[in-house]
Structures are given as structure tokens and as C-alpha cells.
Amino acid sequence: MDRRISALTAQKRNPERINVYLDGEFAFGLSRIVAAWLYVGQELSDEKIAELQSGDMHESAYQKALNYLSYRIRSEAEVRKHLVGKGIQEEVVEQVLVRLQNAGLVDDELFARSWVENRSEYRPRSRRALVYELKRKGVSEAAIHSAVDQIDEEELAYLAALKKAMRYNRLEWPAFRQKMHTYLVGRGFNYEVSSQVVARIWREINEDIDSVPNAAKKEVDQ
Q1: How far apart are CA 135 and CA 1, in angstroms?
Q2: What is the pLDDT of residue 24?
Q3: Per the confidence metrics, is the pTM higher than 0.85?
Q4: C-alpha angle with apex 159: 155 to 204, nearest 5 degrees?
Q5: What is the DSSP string of 104-151?
Q6: Is residue 153 helix, strand or coil?
Q7: Under 8 Å CB-to-CB from 141, ≥6 apart: which residues?
Q8: Phi, psi for 35 (deg, rounded to 5)
């Protein structure tokens, strides 16, 4: 049996949602975009009501995803986990993800590249460390390898070391090397790369080549 819309009113606390009254009684709420084509006097079948409520469920989930994405770019796995955590049905979550992907708002390859670029600029770390971080974000192996394939490991180590070098520039070579090497290893760089970079930076700090210890000269020249 069809029911007639007797009133459509914006909710006081959330004007983006519309209260739908059927036959003089409150029936349900809908997002404004879903309720856009409704009008007072319109008759709704049970099937149409179910369709409207399903559409509202999807739109609500989509808006939650957009809000989550508004803070920073996210991986597909992050968005999925967030929506499931909000109690949204998995079927709806998957449909929302397809919609986001089609709109270019969720793209794991873009996410992985952005993550690597951001880390390289602000917190440089090794390829191994970047791969580990991206795996924790749920990014696929293909997207990860595409993002890290062209990384210059030594250049990343150099950028990371520069941020620390001036703090230790008054130390003698043995202490400088130890502290810098420990720092770089902690960032995931291997012994060989760390040694080369530490010696290179020591040499740059000490512009007079005669002041550079022989050990450092050898590491730079190798």
C-alpha cells in the first residue's frame, strides 16, 4: 500500500538531512541529496521507500569517507578500515570504494608515490623502511614497488643525514661517525650506504681536505 508524503522538513541539528513524514507521521530521515526529488503529496511504495533508505545509507557512508579523506590522502585499506569501524556494512563499503576510485579520490599508486615523496622531503628513510610503512598501510605490492623503484638510496640517506649533521659538527671524527651512523641505521639504511654518506658529509663540513681523517677519505673515495 502506497503512503503519501505529508511533510518534508530540514533537521534542526543537521540541515543537510531531511525529515520525511508519511501520512502525517515522521517516517525516516534522508540526506538532502537523496531527498532532492521528493515533494509533498508524492506517493511512495514500500519498494521506493526501501530504495530511498538504501540510497541514504550509501550517501551517508560516502560522506563519511569524504570527511576522512579531507585531512590527507589515504590508502584504500585505510578507508575500508575506517568505514567498517563506523559500523557500515561491508557491501556498502565496497560500493563506496568503487565510487571513490572512479572519482579518483582513492588511488593506491598515487598514495604510495605521495607517501614516498613526503617522506623524502620531510623525514627521509631507506627503501626498506618505506616498503615496510606502505605495507602497514595496506598498499599492494605492485603499487609499493612502482613508488620505490626509482629511489636513490644514497641520496635519501644524505638528505636524512643533513638534518642531523650540524648538531654533531663540533665532534671529533670517531664520535661524529658513530652518532651519524647510528642515526642512519635507525632510519633503515644499511652499513655501506651509511658509511659512505657519513664520510661525505664530514668532508663537506670540513672543507679543508687535510683536516679530514684518512678513514673518512677512503670511505668517500671508494
Answers
A1: 53
A2: 93
A3: no
A4: 90
A5: TS--HHHHHHHHHHHHHHHS---HHHHHHHHHHTT--HHHHHHHHTT-
A6: helix
A7: none
A8: -85, 0
